[in-house]
């Protein structure tokens, strides 16, 4: 095969590319059959035969939010326990709040109250060698391109079909924030083609990310106000109470998705995996669309 590829690369570039494509597909099939298909079949069997399912996740806080609709669906027929693995090293993540890990103890303690608020989760705990039926970390290893809808990642390995137009998160309301436009903009997954400066015309903007993220965006939006969330349940309550949410691919946006509040996603040209679903949910890539969709949500009168 090597000599055939080498010869075709010299005399027939098209044939070389076809051979290379076929070879890569064969490698992918062999890898899947040997390493991953047994895991998929194991998960399928557990869902079919067990009444209690133990889930494991070692990823980012937002990724954990994104598996909740799958767990909620499975909770209709199973008792569901979610275990969170801390301090799994990450190769690189620009200005990641958890530093060199996907999730550290500090971020877990921020996330835990929100998870415990969800009645379909029977138990929430830090992973300590519990028996696991469905390991969501498998998603990062599969020979799949992850540039698709990230809230459906968990359904890929479980086979669960989701209705993403219905809420999968419960939260409370803060009446004093009902007219606020809630914003989060992380350093990663930004859209380099747009500007937030037009928001200087608004006086009801509330930022719920980190203080570093706030200070960075404050340079564009002078009237931006910082809200220091006690934890992610507090953030969810703020989101649930707001007029609408504007965020990039961060924990705030999947929380807004889970609550099905009006929301606007700053889509990342480099990693467009997050997608809006349901009513009053929009995304944008370019400035004119940003301002148009922002104005549509700003003119809503749902409260």
List its traits:
4-stranded parallel β-sheet; Rossmann fold; 303 residues; 14% strand; 2 domains; globular
Please give a quick description of this structure.
With 303 residues, this protein is of the alpha/beta class. Helices cover 39% and strands 14% of the residues. It contains nine helices and ten strands.
Query: How far from one another are the termini?
Result: 66 Å
- Radius of gyration, CA atoms, in whole angstroms: 22 Å
- Kindly report the name of the CATH homologous superfamily of the largest domain: Glycogen Phosphorylase B
Number of domains: 2
| Sheet with the most strands, sense and barrel status | 6 strands, parallel
- Please identify the structural class as seen in this structure: alpha/beta
Query: CATH top level of the largest domain?
Result: Alpha Beta
Q: At the third CATH level, what is the topology name of the largest domain?
A: Rossmann fold
| Share of residues in strands | 5-15%
Q: Topology as H/E string?
A: HHEHEHEEHEEHEHEHEEH
Query: Based on the structure given, which CATH architecture of the largest domain is correct?
Result: 3-Layer(aba) Sandwich
């Amino acid at each position: 095969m090597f000599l055939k590829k080498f010869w075709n690369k010299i005399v027939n570039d098209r044939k070389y590319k076809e051979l290379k494509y076929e070879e890569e597909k064969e490698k992918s099939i062999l890898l899947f059959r040997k390493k991953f298909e047994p895991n998929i079949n194991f998960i399928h069997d557990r869902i079919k035969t067990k009444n209690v399912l133990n889930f494991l996740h070692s990823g980012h806080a937002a990724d954990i939010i994104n598996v909740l609709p799958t767990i909620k669906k499975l909770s209709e027929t199973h008792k569901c326990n979610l275990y969170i693995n801390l301090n799994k090293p990450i190769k690189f993540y620009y200005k990641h709040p958890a530093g060199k890990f996907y999730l550290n103890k500090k971020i877990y303690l921020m996330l835990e109250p929100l998870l415990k608020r969800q009645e379909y989760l029977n138990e929430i705990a830090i992973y300590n060698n519990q028996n696991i039926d469905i390991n969501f970390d498998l998603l990062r290893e599969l020979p799949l391109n992850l540039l698709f809808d990230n809230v459906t990642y968990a359904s890929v390995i479980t086979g669960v079909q989701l209705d993403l137009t219905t809420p999968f998160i419960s939260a409370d309301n803060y009446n004093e924030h009902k007219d606020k436009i809630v914003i989060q903009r992380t350093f990663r997954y930004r859209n380099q083609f747009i500007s937030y400066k037009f928001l200087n015309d608004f006086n009801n903007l509330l930022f719920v990310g980190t203080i570093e993220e706030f200070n960075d965006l404050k340079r564009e939006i002078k009237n931006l106000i910082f809200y220091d969330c006690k934890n992610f349940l507090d953030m969810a309550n703020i989101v649930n109470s707001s007029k609408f949410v504007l965020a990039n691919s961060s924990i705030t946006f999947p929380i807004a998705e889970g609550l099905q509040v009006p929301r606007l996603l700053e889509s990342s040209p480099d990693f467009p995996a997050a997608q809006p679903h349901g009513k009053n949910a929009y995304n944008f890539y370019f400035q004119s669309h940003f301002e148009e969709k922002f104005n549509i949500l700003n003119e809503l009168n749902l409260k």
